[in-house]
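Q: Given only this backbone (249 positions), what sequence would you predict?
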């Protein structure tokens, strides 16, 4: 059982301030230039779109017990739609699994006003801007790390952090170390479906990232992704809360 982490409830304006600070951030010139250039060049299929082209805010509410940590927005996905994992195939795969595990009200997400709502979950990223070749630099990840720290600080009911991919997992480990959440000598190892409970801290769940290089090759299947979220769901409801509805195929 993962113990319930419960610091004082922050005022709602603190979350709004965090969202504003994320969207207006210009710490990484390379990322900002790339996002804005993509918005001008566009992809042929999206010529009619007015790209978001700014850092993406967190998706979800600070009252959530699950926090999903991704890598970064896709150039023609979130950078276009303005919402985490929305409008690309990675998001299709992710939201299907979250829906089946009871963390989303619908299995797909195409644009900001399509009705998607997360249930007891929030999504953030190691980087909030789309990087060239989907690879933020070490310095860019470090520059964005304060947003992850503030996100966690403002989630008083947080029970589980769900890391998508090795880079997100490593970022989460740095966060855990900075908050003294890792017991001395503990060395969590990344692996799909790995679950690490800690006394007085949120559980950490690891998953392969739902990128096409993983989903198209079969390294990550829909069942694998759903089962990882079911593990997270069990952690989030282990305090006797009313179980979420699980959708099965």
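A: Predicted residues:
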């Amino acid at each position: 059982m993962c113990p319930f982490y419960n610091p004082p409830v922050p005022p709602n304006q603190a979350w709004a301030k965090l969202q504003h600070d994320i969207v207006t951030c210009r710490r990484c010139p390379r990322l900002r230039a790339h996002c804005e250039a993509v918005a001008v060049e566009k992809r042929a299929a999206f010529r009619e779109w007015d790209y978001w082209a700014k850092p993406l805010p967190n998706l979800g509410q600070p009252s959530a017990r699950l926090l999903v940590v991704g890598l970064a927005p896709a150039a023609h996905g979130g950078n276009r739609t303005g919402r985490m994992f929305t409008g690309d195939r990675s998001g299709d795969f992710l939201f299907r699994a979250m829906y089946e595990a009871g963390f989303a009200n619908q299995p797909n997400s195409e644009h900001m006003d399509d009705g998607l709502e997360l249930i007891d979950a929030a999504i953030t990223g190691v980087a909030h801007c789309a990087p060239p070749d989907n690879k933020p630099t070490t310095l860019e990840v470090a520059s964005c790390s304060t947003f992850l720290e503030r996100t966690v600080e403002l989630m008083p009911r947080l029970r589980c952090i769900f890391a998508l991919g090795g880079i997100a997992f490593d970022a989460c480990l740095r966060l855990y170390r900075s908050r003294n959440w890792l017991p001395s000598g503990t060395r969590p190892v990344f692996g799909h479906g790995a679950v690490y409970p800690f006394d007085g801290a949120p559980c950490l769940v690891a998953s392969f990232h739902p990128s096409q290089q993983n989903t198209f090759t079969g390294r990550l299947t829909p069942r694998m992704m759903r089962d990882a979220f079911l593990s997270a769901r069990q952690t989030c409801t282990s305090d006797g809360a009313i179980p979420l509805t699980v959708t099965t195929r």
